[in-house]
Amino acid sequence: MESEVRRHKRIERLLRESRLPLEKTLDSFDMKRLPRKVAQVVNSLLDGSFLDGGKNN
Questions:
Q1: Helix (H) or strand (E) holding 8
Q2: How many beta carbons lie within 10 A of that of residue 34, not counting itself?
């Protein structure tokens, strides 16, 4: 239980220190704003298809 509490507090601290807007998610991100090639790379990273090929993107 102590380890879970520490983990939770660590995550909270890191989120607070990052100063990232917590309301932004990939679901709310407008992929249409990206150039086509960048959008393809993002989609590849999101679905993990690059893992099967054993190469870096």
A1: helix 2-18
A2: 14
